């Protein structure tokens, strides 16, 4: 059995199993016979998905029909598949996972916030698909205090890099760093081109930052890579970190960024001193993207 045939058979078997598990009452359908409460017929799925019964039957049978992404999305929505199941169906047909619908999350999930807080003196924050900063720890707030006071609609990593003067003062290599961030943003946000929030962000940056405008037309694209980052903090001086980014498997649309103090430097000691300074009482200020305080 070839690889393509095996994937088609797995796709057909997966859809057939899920179809048979669906609760008929959830689709406003009566029981079959006297007691069969689960399982939709193929024609019931096909009708709701907007495809022919024959085509859907062939899909479950694993025939070589080359289903389009649009049709598979319709079938997945009709069967009310979870995000993971939807992605699995697309992957079996040779398509990339479906793209996030939300540019900004309502709030950072509680378990992700606990992960941020657990980083101690390593600055850490979480960003949405559109690079809105959704949560952060005390160390990040100590490194960049404006994150807690900037207006919710301005709390976007790319926007702050290009428009907040304090960020420029903190980064001795701001010109290279800003362009690097922009190239990464562009590589990641192609799927968001149709979103109003993305268009508004780019329009605002083009209007407010000449540096952004010049860099934007260069169409530079780069994948994220862990790297050394250096900051100049007004209170504790030079800080050197290793920049890492993680994607939680259960929140794949969110990235967790951690700045780990660089070895063979005194950055860790300086961060501890910064966190022990007056006003740093060990309490993290956490806000959602609407500006609402989530916890003390």
UniProtKB/TrEMBL annotation:
Residue ranges of domain HTH cro/C1-type in the record: 14-86
InterPro entries: Cro/C1-type_HTH (IPR001387), Lambda_DNA-bd_dom_sf (IPR010982), MLTR_LBD (IPR041413)
GO MF annotation list: DNA binding
Pfam annotation, one family: MLTR_LBD
SMART domains the record matches: HTH_XRE
Classification of source organism: Bacteria, Bacillati, Actinomycetota, Actinomycetes, Jiangellales
CDD domains the record matches: HTH_XRE
Official protein name in the record: Helix-turn-helix domain-containing protein
Originating species: Phytoactinopolyspora alkaliphila
